[in-house]
Amino acid sequence: MQSDVVSIARIYEKKYSIKVDEEFILLKLMEEVGELAEAVLTLNGKSRPEKKISKKEAKKKLAHELADVVGIVMVCGDVYGVDLEKAIKEKWLKWKKV
Ligand SMILES: [Mg+2]
What we know:
Blueprint: H1 2-16, H2 22-43, H3 55-79, H4 84-91
Magnesium ion (MG) is lined by residues 32, 35, 65, 68.
């Protein structure tokens, strides 16, 4: 899945003539985390009245923003030359053995 996501980032890069480098992707991650925060506030009814949407729409928005964050993290892994699958196994899945 990571290679598919990275290929989309390359399309974005060409389409908008924006170099997806270390600085860009880290700032993009911050942007997407902000959008995720906004989605959570909306879902919890803590947004401005004009931003209110149905619970179903808010949940979908939250799912899409989570997907954006995960996707950008995958691109970060590529840009920084990190094998994310290996890193997740080392950092997270070691707890399966506990
Ligand atoms: Mg987003």
